[in-house]
Amino acid sequence: xxxxxxxxxxxxxxxxxxxxxxxxxxxxxxxxxxxxxxxxxxxxxxxxxxxxxxxxxxxxxxxxxxxxxxxxxxxxxxxxxxxxxxxxxxxxxxxxxxxxxxxxxxxxxxxxxxxxxxxxxxxxxxxxxxxxxxxxxxxxxxxxxxxxxxxxxxxxxxxxxxxxxxxxxxxxxxxxxxxxxxxxxxxxxxxxxxxxxxxxxxxxxxxxxxxxxxxxxxxxxxxxxxxxxxxxxxxxxxxxxxxxxxxxxxxxxxxxxxxxxxxxxxxxxxxxxxxxxxxxxxxxxxxxxxxxxxxxxxxxxxxxxxxxxxxxxxxxx
Length: 317
Ligand SMILES: [Zn+2]
Ligand SMILES: [Zn+2]
What we know:
The protein is an alpha/beta fold and 317 residues long. The chain has helices at 39-43, 55-58, 61-68, 83-91, 183-193, 235-244, 262-267, 273-282, 299-313, and strands spanning 2-6, 16-20, 26-29, 45-49, 74-80, 105-113, 116-122, 130-136, 139-143, 146-154, 158-166, 169-172, 200-203, 206-209, 217-220, 224-228, 250-254, 287-291. It is globular, with a radius of gyration of 23 Å. The two termini are 32 Å apart. The structure holds zinc ion (ZN) (2 copies).
């Protein structure tokens, strides 16, 4: 399971921290100004996902590098076309003569199109940007049991929406049998995954054909979580969102404007309460959460906006 925590208050820019069960590292989604993001969380992060580099999504990058410098390992930064040069420009506005070349390495993954990613590397103290390779597809990040895929949305510039997905897992229900746990459980799961129906599994010195024990197993669907930031609420974007995030367990979606400010949303290539809810409903997302509100609203207006969103989520018009 993924655990997601919004690290910004409603008056601040957006930043969301993701953690995965039984996994040591954090992921930071969006680098907006977020006062709840702690130094420890920043230092324990091994990948940062940025939708686009409007200042409200990128301003906190300086704080992140401030606390990550010296961790002596690689951190991946994912973002849209041009982000590698923008990161280099940000970093080069400081002086680094006392910093060792192994203090940190940033691997920057730049999404050029829906099917192409360019990978760069940059490290202190010179911070020269090196292009490493180009990869095909939309899988921008991979761990042993999860992947992150992207889709490009239109916000007058391309913005990236991210989906974090766990692989399905084979689980066992020992309590429905008379057996006790042991190394045979792992062997049985391996036999199941590799079509080893006739493999012999030894439990308590007695041998069983694997297929005779398969009824103890079931597939647990992997968790999925989406982060959809700034986009205009048009047909093309909604088509992409519905396809990419269909049936996700949880999605955070930008909801910049109230319904009465629909014209502003269109003008500024943003979404608004009713439309963000509509696309979440049509994508059959199990839990949709409205985030990232215009700074023109005070606390009570944001409450109204969220109510509009939640109200539309439950309508079928
Ligand atoms: Zn924006
Ligand atoms: Zn924004």
